[in-house]
Amino acid sequence: MPNQVPLVSYLVLGDDPHLIAHECTNCKARFFDRRNGCAKCFGTEFKDVSLPKEGKVRAFSIVHSAAPGIKVPFVASVIECGTTRVSANIINVDPKPENLKLGMKVKLATYVLGKDEVGTEAIGFGFEPA
Amino acid sequence: MASENLYILGIHMTKFGKYPNRDLIDLAAEAAQGAFKDGGVTMGDMNILAAGNLRGTGRIGQPLQKQIGQTGIPVYNVTNACATGATAMRVVMMAIKAGEADMGLAVGSEKLAGVGLLTGANVKADGKTWTPEGRFDAVSATDGRIGTETMPGVFAQIGMEYGSRYGEVSFETFAKISEKNHYHSTLNPLAAYQKRMSLEEIMKDVMVAYPNTRPMCSANTDGAAATVIVSEKKLRTLSKAQQDRAVKIAASVLTTDPWEDGCQVLANVNTCTREAAKQAYAQAGVGPKDIRLIELHDCFATAELVHYDNLMLCDEGAAVEHFNSGATWREGRQPVNVSGGLESKGHPIAATGIANVWEIATHLRGEAGPRQIEGAKIGMTHVIGLGNTCAIHILQK
Ligand SMILES: [Zn+2]
After folding, report:
1. How many CB atoms lie within 10 A of CB A42?
2. What is the pLDDT of residue B119?
3. A3 in contact with B at a CB cutoff of 8 Å?
4. Rounded to an integer, what distance in angstroms lies between the CA atom of residue B390 and that of residue B288?
5. Average pLDDT, chain A
6. Distance CA B52, CA B47 (A)
7. CA angle A92-A118-B135, nearest 5°?
8. What are B363-374's pLDDT values in tens digits?
């Protein structure tokens, strides 16, 4: 199996790919990016927590124009994984309004995004209908 | 809050549209000189200049002075996303309230005609080997792979998210909002597009980001707007004609989005708007029902809907019912975006927050001609700067 790297560091690869969030140890606010502090309580200590791999669609848009290299149309969405909202594409679905529904159940899926010059695969993620 | 009242003394906007042969300064100068003429004053009367521009040099104040008058006054160059123009107004107001000025000019100018899709910054070229970069350690571009940063897609989701909270909103409902605004534009000679569009035409037009088709998106145009703001004390020294046309700024509020679950995943334009509206109603001593007409930030049809609720024009969760009641059409109880809104008037970003004020002030002065809303004594303007900022002004005559 080729070497793999995740598209972003909050995607954890391995036998059981999943997403993690950086949770404020004081107020439990969750974030995905590198943090300088907590936007809710101003604390500066965080721990990583795993998110459920299943969620439901809170918002979506079928996007028909995008930066070069991105295949359109695609489905941009906000997924609720438990109580944590995640930005993701809905994948493995024909991107038409009739195939998408607010509240629909989805689950995390990963895919190979591409290979670099030394053959390392970058792994992306999305959510697919559950 | 300082007690002295502030007034719009003069205000002007250029027609929004395409100006291939005129630059940011030409447009800003037309707006500024128009505002001076409207207010019966000159550059020599200004004690402060706040100049807004987002996507050009972002520093147009001094170049503008060099065309319309170099008097040595302080200049503040302002950028605050789509709230840039409204922020420039607030800079002038804060200077007056602080006692550093008694009259000042706020101007916003933008060249956007022909600019394509406005995307986020997270576009990254792939290197020879995957290299983590940025706050997410991304090895490649994330825009389009992890959701979208394009404005039509972001605001589409903001509209859909409203549906998640209060019941699904149909594509047709969003499209009808656009139908209303395009209908309104037919009476506004300063709008970039003045074409009435049928619901069917809107729904069958090019899909940009479902449920927003092209006519449901704000139009990228050129344009500028400017206003002269004056203290009440100074106003009382001016002529009766000037005093008679002055429009009171009953409230001026700027907020940002307070932290809430999910607010860093999908832009939250709701919390900052609701809070700004609350503060503005309190400052002006009025309630939503007292507002005769509203210019709100319909950067996309999906956005207009959520702001009916955020501005408390309807009961919580009742934005669709409110729209379906006909209240927000120009013939309705409380018209919204009689200018045609950003979808047809155009959205030259830095000019927008002042152009909205121009629209309301023109109705309050009874000078809106064929599109005049009768009995307009109190009106409201609202802009959103994605990221997020909300600015609200309540004007009173
Ligand atoms: Zn915290």
Report:
1. 11
2. 57
3. no
4. 17
5. 96
6. 17
7. 65
8. 999 999 999 999
Q: Using CA atoms, how far apart are residues B331 and B59, in angstroms rounded to an integer?
A: 41
Of A14, A40, A8, A130, the C-alpha closest to A80 is A130
Residues facing residue A109 across a β-bridge: A126
DSSP track, B109-141: EE--TT------S------SS---BTTTTBSS-
Per the CB < 8 Å rule, is B141 touching A67? yes
User: Which residue in this structure is represented by tokens 């002004």?
Assistant: B393
Specify the amino acid at residue B89: M
* Tens of pLDDT, residues B70-127: 999 999 999 999 999 999 999 999 999 999 999 999 999 999 998 866 655 455 667 7
A116 touches chain B (CB under 8 A): yes
Q: What is the mean predicted confidence (pLDDT) over B187-209?
A: 98
The sign of the CA dihedral B108, B190, B397, B237 is positive
Q: Among B114, B140, B117, B119, which Cα is nearest to B129's?
A: B140
**In 3D, which of B171, B228, B332, B326 has the Cα closest to residue B12?**
B228
Q: Which residue of A has its CA nearest to B129?
A: A116
Residue among B132, B160, B259 whose CB faces A59 most closely: B160
Candidates A4, A9, A11, A64: best to mutate against B (most CBs of B within 10 A) is A64
Shortest CA gap A125–chain B (Å): 8
CA nearest to A34 within chain B: B135
Mean pLDDT of B131-140: 96
Chain A: give the shortest CA distance to residue B155, in Å: 9
The encoded tokens of residue A23 equal 């949770």
Q: How confident is the model at residue B117, as a pLDDT?
A: 62
**Residue contact B123–A67, C-beta within 8 A:** yes
Q: What are phi and psi of B62, to 5 degrees?
A: -70, -45
Report the alpha-carbon distance of residue A21 to residue B212 in Å, rounded: 31
Evaluate whether ipTM surpasses 0.90. Answer: yes
- List, for residues A32-71, the tens digit of each pLDDT value: 999 999 999 999 999 999 999 999 999 999 999 888 889 9
Closest alpha carbon within chain A to B122? A67
Residue in B126, B137, B164 closest to A8 by CB: B137
Task: Give the model's pLDDT for residue B1.
Answer: 44
Distance (Å) from CA B38 to ligand 1 centroid: 51
pLDDT tens, position by position, B268-323 = 999 999 999 999 999 999 999 999 999 999 999 999 999 999 999 999 999 999 99
- Helix, coil or strand: residue B41: coil
Token readout for A75 is 């489905």
Cα separation, B104 vs B159, whole angstroms:
38
Q: CA of B160: which chain A residue's CA is closest?
A: A59
Q: Specify whether the CB–CB gap between B351 and B303 falls below 8 A.
A: no
